[in-house]
Amino acid sequence: MNDQTKIVRDQTEGETGSIVFPIYQSSAFLLPKGEKFRYSRENNPSVESLCIKINNLEGADAGSCFSSGMGAVTTTLLSLLSPGKTLLVQRDIFARSFKFITGFLKNWGINVIAFNPGTESIMAYSNRKVDLIFIESITNPMLRVTDIEKIRSIFHDGETVIVTDATLATPVLQKPLSLGSDLVIHSLSKFISGHNDTIGGYVGGRKDLVSKIDENRRTLGPSMDPNTAFLINRGMKTLYVRMRQSGITAFSIAKKLEKVEMIKKVHYPLLENHADYPRSKELINGYPSVVSFDLDTEKVDIQSFMSALKIIMPANTLGGLNTTITHPATMSHRTISHEERLRSGIMPGTMRLSVGLESEEDLIGDLERSISTATKA
């Protein structure tokens, strides 16, 4: 069965024949029949149904759902690492993940090594013993495309665990487990749910690793509630349609933004001037829905630009039906230093545009008009 067919189908509910999997709004389940679920912090039928669906899309042996994407990230890393172990992490990833790794985990006794943007940067550590590598398949917000296959060929299976955050790619554009990653993580709040109305996370992959992570989820408590599971399941049924439409629009907008005078650089993996362009065409199955670009801050006032937008919404999120824009330096990546942002490629004028389902003409018109309005005298 094709993935696009799998994603719109729910498990039929045995006793009622409901074609939509219901919300099991129960904190506990009557024993002995309810032994499998017992207590909803540990397991819940609505959450399990969602998790099974994502497992099937990703080709995961097992999976676990969380109350947030960061809950999935932190529980995964705490479950697989201990003081004295070595963790390699991309520098150009989501700020909260990077801060947790380089702050909390480092203080906890983990040997943390941050490598610079680009897959080639990891080559310098090929002769070192590395216990875990944390990467993003498409980095946030600079949209570098990580070559998971190459990393796997360097750091052998069974010796190094590779954890890939694939939030920006989703299973539509890439399946990291098939490329050599041991685990895949998603912020379900973004493209997978797609409606800016839920917070959730997921990790899936090798059963032995997921079992450790899931056991700690039950103990630490970042469990997903059944209402959230229902909303994410409903939202993800349109994932393939949304990703394809928004991706096509994003690609077109990226090409047009290259011609806008006040934009110094456009970051999009399928533009020929992108650092990862040759491999991007092989590693990504379609068009990413996010475009980043660097405004010339000597000529354009960032706050005036965002205030002038009428259709695009300045918001600290991405992946919804509505197009949103983020200024990483003051929004998504405000918690890391200016120097660290520069090392990741984030300039003072970098903007991250998450393209939704609005008209392309309306979106490009809104951007061009707002840039013009915010141009300094």
TrEMBL record:
Please name the GO terms of the biological process aspect recorded for this protein, alphabetically. transsulfuration
Q: Which cofactor does it need?
A: pyridoxal 5'-phosphate
Q: Which CDD domains match?
A: CGS_like
What's any one GO cellular component for it? cytoplasm
Q: Which Gene3D superfamilies match?
A: Aspartate Aminotransferase, domain 1 (3.90.1150.10), Type I PLP-dependent aspartate aminotransferase-like (Major domain) (3.40.640.10)
Q: Does the keyword DNA damage apply?
A: no
**InterPro entries named among the record's database cross-references:** Cys/Met-Metab_PyrdxlP-dep_enz, PyrdxlP-dep_Trfase, PyrdxlP-dep_Trfase_major, PyrdxlP-dep_Trfase_small
Which UniProt keywords are present, listed alphabetically?
A: Lyase, Pyridoxal phosphate, Transferase
State if Lyase is listed as a keyword.
yes
Q: Which domain of life is it from?
A: Archaea
One Gene Ontology MF term: cysteine-S-conjugate beta-lyase activity
What name does UniProt use for this protein?
PLP-dependent transferase
